[in-house]
Write a structure and sequence with these properties.
365 residues; alpha+beta; CV3147-like fold; CV3147-like; 2 domains; 9-stranded mixed β-sheet; globular; S-Me-THD-like_C; S-Me-THD_N
Length: 365
């Protein structure tokens, strides 16, 4: 167990969450500001390892749902967070023992920390995907039989909706409609589970991974070391998962569209030394597929991240604009995401990409 009692640590965690967010998940900056304010007041988020809770503990995921372009415009409301927790405990008829992130990427890494800071509830060092994804059913929780519903959705105006769905794909569709009616931004309680389930089906040690990633980028920059070499070393030290720089260049075109509650787009880059060397990254909230001169360079569920080539700061899809000089990073997904049953839910075809999954290790060999 450890307390997040340093503003530098929460800034590092937010930076790491943007990287694992693979362009989506919402910018965690607003959530970071809330947690920083709580730390100044002496209210510290508490993080515990999954193995430290009882098997019969009641664990709940707190997450925002909506278009990232809208989520960034909303401040975190402590009253809404507390209302959501109270309503969840009333609905399920028991006290929540621990919180868990539905996804570790982007803003949803911050909401459980924010609620932990103001209540003292522990947050598990784990999440449901090890990155960010655009659909509710795209989690190791759902894939392994832990349903997203009953789910409670709330907005800051006091509206609330309880969703009970026959399956999580239907839950995604229903919650998306509700979220749209709430202004394309809602806060929700999802995936009620036991402590035993959290130990068995969550991707572990991901909150501490955000801290390690953010710290590696910051300290390398402060010490004038190679930021990307330091970052790749930290990433590959975790379970031996492959990480590699896929492209180094400049954004020459980028499209953005908010449609059906998602952020859609494409970033096109060219080499700084060869105008004929082109690289593209497609966006559906997250970066889904990268292609180098038309050839696939990385594809979901493996992680694709775009970083500023000078500072190493990872970017969300909404941050991308013409003229930025960037590097594109590929990072192998957690092994659970590459299993055949997982690929049916979070593989390329689930995103409408007419390709089979090929691992980063094969693509960069």
């Amino acid at each position: 167990m450890f307390l997040v009692d340093s503003i530098i640590d929460i800034q590092d965690m937010a930076r790491g969450a943007v990287l694992l967010g693979t362009g989506g998940g919402g910018d965690p900056y607003v959530g970071e500001l809330f947690v920083r304010a709580q730390i100044k007041l002496g209210n510290f988020p508490r993080i515990v390892a999954s193995e430290d809770i009882d098997d019969d503990a009641f664990v709940l995921s707190i997450a925002a749902m909506g278009a990232p372009t809208v989520v960034i415009e909303h401040l975190v409301s402590d009253s809404t967070l507390l209302r959501l927790l109270a309503r969840a405990e009333e609905h399920f008829g028991r006290r929540v023992d621990a919180l868990i992130s539905a996804e570790i990427g982007g803003a949803n890494s911050m909401f459980p920390l924010a609620l932990s800071a103001i209540t003292g509830l522990p947050v598990l060092d784990a999440d449901g995907i090890g990155r960010a994804v655009p659909h509710l059913e795209m989690t190791t929780f759902s894939i392994n039989g832990c349903k997203a519903t009953p789910a409670i959705l709330m907005d800051d105006s006091g509206n609330e909706v309880i969703v009970q769905a026959v399956d999580d794909k239907t839950a995604e569709e229903l919650c998306r409609v509700v979220t749209g009616a709430m202004g394309a931004m809602a806060l929700g309680a999802f995936y009620p589970m036991s402590g035993r389930q959290a130990k068995e089906i969550a991707v572990q040690r991901t909150l501490t991974q955000t801290l390690d990633i953010g710290r590696a980028i910051r300290t390398a920059r402060e010490q004038s070391r190679d930021i990307f070499a330091s970052l790749i070393q930290v990433l590959e030290e975790r379970d031996g998962r492959k990480a590699a720089i896929l492209f180094d260049g400049k954004i020459v075109d980028v499209t953005h569209e908010t449609r059906d509650g998602w952020h859609w787009g494409r970033a096109t880059m060219r080499s700084l030394t060869d105008a004929g060397d082109e690289f593209t990254v497609d966006i559906q909230n997250e970066f889904t597929v990268a292609r180098h001169n038309g050839r696939t360079a990385a594809i979901v569920p493996d992680l694709i991240t775009i970083l500023d080539r000078e500072t190493g700061e990872p970017m969300t899809g909404e941050m991308l604009s013409y003229g930025q000089r960037v590097k594109v990073l590929g990072y192998a997904a957690d092994a659970m995401l590459r299993l055949p049953n997982s690929l049916e839910v979070i593989g390329p075809r689930a995103f409408g990409i007419d390709e089979d999954f090929v691992s980063l290790e094969e693509l960069v060999a």
